[in-house]
Amino acid sequence: MERIFVTNYLNVENVGRYRLLMRFLYKRHRQMQGTIYRPELLKMMQREYPGTYSELDLDNDLENLVAWGNLLKQQEMIRPKSIEEYRNKNFRYQISEDGVLVEEMVYQMTHREHSVRGALNEQSFRRLLDLLEEFVDKEYSLIETWTFIREEFKKIGEDTSNYIGYITSPEVDSRMKTEEFLIYKDKFVNYLREFISSVQSLYFSFVRVIKKLDQINQEQLIEEAYQKEQEIPAMHGMSREEVAEQIQGELAALGHWFIDSSDRPSEYDNLLKQTDQMISKITGLIYYFSQEIHQYQSRKKDYRHLATWFAKADNLDQAKEMYAAIFGIDHTRHYFVTETSEASSKRENSWELAPAIISLNNRGKGSRNDRKVSSVRLDRTVQIEQMQQYQREVLQRQQKIKNYFHENVLDFHEVVELDATSRKVFLKWISQAIATKQTVGQSGKTHYQQVITTEFDFTVVVSVSQVERITVPCEDGVLEMPAVRMVIN
Questions:
Q1: Which position among 92, 115, 186, 263 has the lowest Cβ density within 10 Å, counted as fewest Cβ atoms?
Q2: Comparing C-alpha atoms, which of 32, 27, 30, 31 is closest to residue 44?
Q3: Type and span of the H or E element at 409
Q4: Among candidates 22, 30, 16, 41, which has minimal Cα distance to 91?
């Protein structure tokens, strides 16, 4: 943990001069004009500091930047033709790699609102999914596809984290609390909702293809990556162990990003959770502002109308009666009654209901009731009864499910009417089968088939058609779904 000298120019006395030189050299570096001669730098600085900046100042500033490692200095090896040329050695300067990193950091910090916003891009997720599906099916040249996967995954991670950091920043939070934000509310909320719905539709596909990454030949991938690393001439290249460690870490990162672990939820879940919280926050603020505006506008008209009533009052007593009827009686006390009333519907007249009773206790010093500590007793009989009741309910649901099977086969073409409870169970099995699907048929276009372990201690083979769709009558409507056939093992 040593001192970093390349950042010295940001905190010295003449920071304005140093930053001007570094920014000029950085811009020329971005324009592919790396080397700059001393006279050009002197002309630029004297234009910014007319009459106060000398050649000695320039030499001191450049020498300090060279000593700190921000600039590289080279001398032109030419034969001098005069004493003046001999004294004024021809030096050319260019920004170093460390200087470029510092200037990029400074630019991002001073232009944060433009450079670190990120984005929630559904197309990036689709491209990553397509690359992963191509990668797991490949048997050779794995490194080419893996390079694109690495770049796309890195872009998704940076864009999503930057965007979430942007929308949850104090700056955006303060702007959201202004009425001007109402202009952008619809666009903002629709942007987040469309991203959530599109990414959720890809989740099961990501889980399926990431689980297949365990089946690839990691040794072949590591060897291809190492050979590609050797093709690049470098004095400090990566060893094979470092390449293997990097690839294994990237494979693990892909899994942690989309699949939950026992230690923590996945980054995918965190992303959807934070996005959903932002939508709730925005809608809450929108409701607050709309209520405030509506209340302010409507109350203004009401008060004007009431003012005309008071202006027409014949005497003070009539005005007081009007005030009491409109605003209520002064110095009233309200009590909250926790007992249940006799009201069975909100539409009943409250004047026709029997009044509830509330007991008022003494208040003040010494009026507080003493709290007695009582032990908790476990009633074994009640526990057994509750367990037996639960087991009976499970058996009833299991029997209701099995009634739809005829000779251990359920074809949804033949279902006469499907109840809501059984429908939820069947749809959960179908979702599990699609999430871990195995294609059966010619060219993989017929149907998906998967063995599902149910919560009723038996397994079923679920076959989901890819081409045929049916309608199933239910007790609360009609369900349109793919043709499904289930067989109990």
A1: 263
A2: 27
A3: strand 409-411
A4: 41
Q: Which residues does 361 contact at the CB level (< 8 Å), separation at least 6?
A: 367, 369
User: Facing residues of 234 across strands?
Assistant: none
Cβ–Cβ < 8 Å for 321, 311: no
Question: Rounded to the nearest 5 degrees, what angle is found at the Cα of 406, between the Cα atoms of 400 and 409?
Answer: 100
Distance CA 295, CA 303 (A): 12
pLDDT number for residue 183? 66
Please list the rounded mean pLDDT of every run of 10 residues in the chain (489 residues). 86 89 88 80 89 89 92 72 60 88 86 60 86 83 86 84 72 65 70 79 85 84 84 71 87 84 78 79 69 60 86 89 82 62 56 69 66 78 90 88 90 90 89 72 64 86 89 90 90
Amino acid at 380: R
Decide if 26 contacts 94 (C-beta within 8 A). no
How is the chain split into domains, by residue range? 5-110, 115-281, 384-488
Cα torsion 308, 309, 315, 320: sign: negative
Structure-token match 């034969």, residue found: 79
180-213 pLDDT, tens digit per residue, is: 666 666 777 777 778 777 888 888 888 888 888 8
Please give the CATH topology (third level) of the domain spanning 5-110: Arc Repressor Mutant, subunit A (1.10.10)
Helix and strand numbers (H, E) in the chain are: 17, 8
Query: What's the confidence (pLDDT) of residue 442?
Result: 46
Tell me if residue 478 falls in helix, strand or coil: strand
**Cα 119 from Cα 409, distance rounded (Å):** 48
List, edge to edge, every strand of the sheet that includes 447-453. 409-411, 477-488, 459-474, 447-453, 439-440
Q: Would you tell me how many other CB atoms lie within 10 Å of the CB of residue 111? A: 10
